[in-house]
Inverse folding.
């Protein structure tokens, strides 16, 4: 009889756990990806395809965590002001951000690159470049502030990498401190707006093969996948802190 009671008790526990699981299913996320060509998925040869957000989304999808995903608000050539204007002018993006559970954003690269002529990068102009970047960081701060007005849940700012060492026309090593500075300033902005900053600076520094075209700053698929995996790993770390 004792053995029978143990079996009944065991199955009762299993049924109870199963019932709890079904009463409290895992919440599915509304995921919005904002940004420029790196979010759109531009490759080193001018074609659009998979971006790091797509790889990140696929991992979340495998776990059944995503209800809605879009990167429709991301466009090649976008600067911080473009994202700000979209949010101010368009009701749909406001609604999507309000209803979002997770937002990732990569923005600012085109602002930075517009202030630096990549064909004639001169390390002796480092002070001038830094001054230009300080003014751009003000716009990035405003952009993240505008996103945060509507996106009240998880916000991830995904950083860039230093493309200059991989451009054949420059002596990029002397410019590395500039991109280290940008990386640190992004972190400060993320902290200010209770966002998580994902740095990709060291990732690309360790893997120059992710930028195979010396005449283009965009990653290949391996680079995008590595960015997506890195984002996912950091996302998992953040989620584990809640428990």
């Amino acid at each position: 009889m004792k053995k029978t009671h143990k079996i009944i008790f065991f199955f009762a526990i299993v049924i109870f756990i199963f019932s709890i699981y079904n009463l409290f299913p895992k919440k599915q996320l509304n995921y919005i990806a904002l940004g420029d060509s790196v979010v759109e998925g531009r490759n080193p040869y001018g074609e659009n395809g998979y971006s790091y957000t797509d790889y990140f989304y696929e991992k979340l999808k495998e776990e059944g965590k995503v209800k809605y995903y879009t990167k429709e608000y991301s466009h090649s050539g976008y600067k911080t002001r473009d994202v700000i204007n979209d949010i101010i002018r368009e009701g749909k993006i406001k609604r999507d951000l309000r209803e979002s559970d997770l937002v990732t954003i990569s923005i600012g690269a085109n602002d930075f690159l517009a202030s630096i002529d990549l064909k004639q990068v001169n390390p002796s102009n480092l002070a001038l470049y830094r001054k230009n970047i300080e003014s751009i960081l003000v716009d990035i701060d405003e952009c993240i502030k505008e996103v945060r007005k509507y996106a009240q849940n998880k916000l991830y700012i995904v950083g860039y990498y230093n493309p200059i060492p991989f451009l054949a026309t420059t002596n990029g090593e002397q410019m590395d401190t500039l991109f280290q500075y940008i990386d640190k300033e992004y972190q400060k902005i993320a902290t200010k707006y209770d966002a998580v900053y994902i740095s990709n600076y060291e990732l690309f520094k360790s893997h120059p093969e992710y930028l195979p075209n010396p005449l283009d700053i965009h990653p290949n698929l391996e680079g995008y996948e590595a960015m997506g995996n890195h984002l996912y790993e950091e996302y998992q770390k953040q989620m584990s802190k809640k428990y």
Remarks:
- Residues 16-25 have pLDDT under 50 and may be disordered.
- The first strand starts at residue 29 and ends at 35.
- The beta strands are 29-35, 66-70, 102-106, 154-158, 196-198.
- The chain has ten helices and five strands.
